[in-house]
Automatic annotation (TrEMBL):
Protein name listed in UniProt: 4-hydroxy-3-methylbut-2-enyl diphosphate reductase
HAMAP family cross-referenced by the UniProt entry: IspH
Residues bound to (2E)-4-hydroxy-3-methylbut-2-enyl diphosphate: 41, 74, 124, 164, 222-224, 266
Functional note: Catalyzes the conversion of 1-hydroxy-2-methyl-2-(E)-butenyl 4-diphosphate (HMBPP) into a mixture of isopentenyl diphosphate (IPP) and dimethylallyl diphosphate (DMAPP). Acts in the terminal step of the DOXP/MEP pathway for isoprenoid precursor biosynthesis.
Reaction catalyzed: isopentenyl diphosphate + 2 oxidized [2Fe-2S]-[ferredoxin] + H2O = (2E)-4-hydroxy-3-methylbut-2-enyl diphosphate + 2 reduced [2Fe-2S]-[ferredoxin] + 2 H(+); dimethylallyl diphosphate + 2 oxidized [2Fe-2S]-[ferredoxin] + H2O = (2E)-4-hydroxy-3-methylbut-2-enyl diphosphate + 2 reduced [2Fe-2S]-[ferredoxin] + 2 H(+)
Gene of this entry: ispH
Cofactor note text: Binds 1 [4Fe-4S] cluster per subunit.
Root EC class: oxidoreductase
Residues noted as binding [4Fe-4S] cluster in the record, renumbered to the chain: 12, 96, 194
NCBIfam families recorded: ispH_lytB, PRK01045.1-2, PRK01045.1-4
Enzyme Commission no: 1.17.7.4
Cofactor names: [4Fe-4S] cluster
Length: 322
């Protein structure tokens, strides 16, 4: 069996930063540190950090007064920030800078007097965070069909922003529909969909042309990983989202000579290796990596974690990093 690995695949800069924030917080403050929501949507990442002393909670009322609390890469609403302050928590914000950029952009549009439309998936933590970062009403649009149902006049001043991990193609269709519906509309086009999401989608589209079966390593609650699997399926290739090698079924590969493997932005490379090992257990394999874009994006850690410890302690009264 031939295996072709997607390039790029796996961890993005926002995920590397978020995991590093938890690791460094454990080093500086000792266990436990509390993380609100899965730091990124991956059980293996979460279990690994838990084994080092991180405690994962869904709500801040589970965090003791004064403890270190880390917000996940997906971002939080302003009410969560205020709640953390009221509880005297020492907050480290692992929200991806590209998610924060969308928050800032949304607030700017609202300050211009526009009604904000958020293109995204209801209930996803990034969507809840973005809605909660914008003062006033945010109208959520999840599909092209929903655009026609919006209860806004055609000449209403509107603007849109998007979730960072959407399908580029679906989002393009929704944006086109919004432009047909409204006469006074501004927005970032598909540029809010982050570089990592765009690059992994472009790579998997290319990879799908070369393989009989596609495996996407990632979690079922990972938006960006699901989108990769959908692209494989849309191109007519049987595509499976798997957390690791233990989930493979031999009959998926009965007629397959070439298997493509990609990984979502929150999926560790160790899990890709685990999947390759599981395929090797079915028979001899030869693995290569497709040619593709090299990513060099890196995000700075919060100042609170890079300052020498004495300085960090002196400024511990500041709730958020700059
Ligand atoms: O479900 P998402 O794709 O938004 O998040 P995940 O899988 O944790 O990926 C990394 C964090 C992405 C934030 O934009
Ligand atoms: Fe940031 Fe994009 Fe990674 Fe999300 S997927 S954490 S927006 S770089």
């Amino acid at each position: 069996m031939r295996i072709i690995l997607a390039q790029p695949r796996g961890f993005c800069a926002g995920v590397v930063r978020a995991i590093e924030i938890v690791d460094r917080a454990l080093e500086r403050h000792g266990a436990p540190v509390y993380v609100r929501h899965e730091i990124v949507h991956n059980r293996h990442v979460v279990d690994n950090l838990r084994s080092k002393g991180a405690r994962f909670v869904e709500e801040l009322d589970e965090v003791p007064h004064g403890a270190v609390a880390i917000f996940s890469a997906h971002g939080v609403a302003r009410t969560v920030e205020a709640d953390a302050e009221a509880r005297g928590l020492d907050v480290l914000d692992a929200t991806c800078p590209l998610v924060t950029k969308v928050h800032v952009q949304g607030r700017q549009y609202v300050a211009q007097g526009r009604t904000l439309i958020l293109i995204g998936h209801a209930g996803h933590p990034e969507v809840e965070g973005t809605i909660g970062q914008i003062p006033g009403t945010v109208v959520l649009v999840q599909s092209e069909a929903e655009v026609a149902t919006l209860a806004l006049p055609v000449d209403a001043p509107v603007a849109y922003v998007t979730q960072t991990t959407l399908s580029v193609d679906d989002t393009r269709d929704i944006i086109d529909a919004l432009h047909r519906r409204f006469t006074d509309i501004v927005g970032p086009d598909t540029r809010d969909i982050c570089y990592a999401t765009q690059n992994r989608q472009a790579a998997v589209r290319e990879l799908s042309k070369q393989v009989d079966v596609l495996l996407v390593v990632g979690a079922t609650n990972s938006s960006n990983s699901n989108r990769l699997c959908e692209i494989g399926a849309e191109t007519g290739v049987p595509s499976y989202l798997v957390a690791d090698g233990s989930e493979l079924k031999a009959d998926w590969f009965a007629n397959a000579q070439t298997v493509g493997i990609t990984a979502g932005a929150s999926a560790p490379e160790e899990m890709v290796k685990h999947v390759i090992d599981a395929l090797r257990a079915l028979g001899p394999v030869e693995a290569t990596t497709m040619s593709g874009r090299e990513e060099k994006v890196e995000f700075k850690l919060p100042a609170k974690l890079t300052k020498p410890l004495a300085a960090a302690t002196a400024s511990a009264g500041a709730l958020r990093e700059d």
